[in-house]
Automatic annotation (TrEMBL):
<keyword id="KW-0805">Transcription regulation</keyword>
<dbReference type="GO" id="GO:0043565">
    <property type="term" value="F:sequence-specific DNA binding"/>
</dbReference>
<dbReference type="Pfam" id="PF12833">
    <property type="entry name" value="HTH_18"/>
</dbReference>
<dbReference type="InterPro" id="IPR009057">
    <property type="entry name" value="Homeodomain-like_sf"/>
</dbReference>
<keyword id="KW-0238">DNA-binding</keyword>
<protein>
    <recommendedName>
        <fullName>HTH araC/xylS-type domain-containing protein</fullName>
    </recommendedName>
</protein>
<dbReference type="InterPro" id="IPR018060">
    <property type="entry name" value="HTH_AraC"/>
</dbReference>
<feature type="domain" description="HTH araC/xylS-type">
    <location>
        <begin position="197"/>
        <end position="302"/>
    </location>
</feature>
<keyword id="KW-0804">Transcription</keyword>
<dbReference type="GO" id="GO:0003700">
    <property type="term" value="F:DNA-binding transcription factor activity"/>
</dbReference>
<dbReference type="InterPro" id="IPR020449">
    <property type="entry name" value="Tscrpt_reg_AraC-type_HTH"/>
</dbReference>
Length: 303
């Protein structure tokens, strides 16, 4: 069993990565990967950072790290991770850490800011590593300018405005990442339509196989696992493709099946609710009315 290393402070992070400079700020750092030394880290080491991470790596010759079959650009990939996520150091990853940069900021930095309330809206922090953002040269240049501005601000002597300005710069960087992911979803429409079709087929099979009665309504996580995606990536992809969330798609399938059963079977509403994976009729009736504007009884027996 490989050891698990927990890194909680910026100083510990610099030491772990073999970065030769002392931190200029206790809660944020921007590390140039061309200046780190990973020779002291064994491949297979499990690491958990207590930081938000926005990491730009070169992928030329090392794209296997991300496992993608389709690339928009081959120059660089951006991977974002939230605190307490486990990752493993691989030999290929160590090779890729020769160019690029890593922005790391502690949750305490944004704790009292508006960004703390909206940080969960940046769903890419929970994407899988093979769902990394692949950047064009223009996008790389934009992020380079933004990160250098952030580095300059966090390296200066702190004053009463420093934290607000630093956090604002972070938010601008995250908003650009959100924009670039939106571009990636668009440029991969053919690839994404294939995923969307597989998702629809998965739901059709689930609903027609009798699993509803045995296992209940499929969760977004269940569907994402079956498609080898992270739940957030699947949800964002479907939102881009159809305007509906993954949960909305699941509910649509459920309501359509419920309508057919209500109109074309002799089963009671309680029996239908049970067949659709609901332990109680009330839960089924509440969702049905929420989605259709009428109760199952009103739909089954219109006046």
């Amino acid at each position: 069993m490989h050891e698990t290393v927990k890194i909680n402070t910026v100083s510990e992070l610099h030491e772990f990565l073999g970065y030769p400079y002392k931190p200029t700020h206790p809660l944020i750092t921007l590390i140039d990967f061309s200046e780190i030394n990973l020779n002291g880290i064994k491949s297979g080491t499990r690491k958990v950072f207590g930081f938000y991470s926005v990491v730009l790596k070169k992928i030329t010759g090392a794209g296997v790290i991300y496992g993608r079959k389709v690339y928009d650009f081959s120059e660089a990939a951006l991977l974002c991770m939230a605190p307490e996520q486990l990752s493993v150091v691989t030999a290929i990853e160590k090779e890729a850490f020769t160019e690029g940069w890593g922005l790391y900021f502690h949750p305490d930095l944004i704790r009292s800011s508006a960004l703390n309330k909206s940080i969960n809206s940046y769903t890419f922090f929970s994407y899988n590593t093979d769902e990394a953002l692949h950047l064009s040269e223009k996008e790389k240049s934009i992020l380079h300018l933004l990160t250098q501005s952030l580095k300059a601000e966090s390296s200066d002597k702190l004053d009463n405005y420093s934290t607000d300005i630093i956090v604002s710069n972070i938010e601008v960087i995250l908003n650009h990442c959100k924009r670039f992911y939106g571009r990636q979803f668009i440029t991969r429409q053919i690839h994404n339509k294939g995923i969307a079709s597989r998702f629809e087929a998965l739901l059709t099979d689930y609903f027609e196989s009798g699993k509803l009665r045995l296992q209940g309504l499929p969760s977004v996580k269940y569907c994402a696992d079956q498609l080898h995606l992270s739940p957030n990536y699947l949800g964002d992809l479907l939102k881009q493709e159809s305007g509906k969330s993954a949960k909305d798609h699941i509910h649509f399938f459920l309501i359509e099946k419920a309508k057919n059963l209500l109109l074309n079977s002799s089963s009671s509403i309680t029996e239908i609710a049970y067949d659709l994976g609901f332990g109680q009729r009330q839960s089924f009736s509440k969702l049905f009315k929420q989605k259709t504007g009428m109760s199952p009884s009103e739909y089954k027996n219109p006046e």
